[in-house]
Amino acid sequence: MKSLKPRCLDGDPLGYSATGYILPCARCDMPSLHTGQIKQLVQEKFAIKGVHSVQDVLQSNEWQDFYHMLVNSSDSAPDHCWEYCGTNSKIKREINK
Fold first, then answer.
1. Where are the domains of the chain?
2. DSSP line for 12-31
């Protein structure tokens, strides 16, 4: 049975996109960032240039909903979360070597 062990909820550092956004992890920064499965986390209101603090971003409804989904509805997690943080992930096994 596959399961998700999100590193972003287990102390891994946040990521930052080349376009100026805080991300759950560095692996989220990809070409489809603004149109893909985490587009709700990279809205203009979350651009680093316009926020008062990282906590403001992380405590927003969008980010809280994302974290809640990872814990309570992981089947809905973005593909890259499964790719890097799924218990059966080949990439995860390579990273842990």
1. 7-95
2. PPPEE-TTSBEESSGGG-ST
Closest CA to 25 of 47, 3, 40, 41: 41
pLDDT confidence of residue 93: 47
Radius of gyration of the chain (CA): 13
The answer to whether the Cα torsion of 30, 37, 15, 5 is positive or negative is: negative
The residue behind tokens 């809205």 is 43
Sequence-distant contacts of 2-5: CB under 8 A, at least 24 apart:
2/82, 2/86, 2/87, 2/88, 3/74, 3/86, 3/87, 4/70, 4/74, 4/77, 4/81, 4/82, 4/85, 4/86, 4/87, 5/85, 5/86, 5/87
Selection from 94, 57, 82, 88 nearest residue 7 by Cα? 82
* pLDDT averaged per 10 residues, the chain (length 97): 89 94 93 92 95 96 97 93 85 51
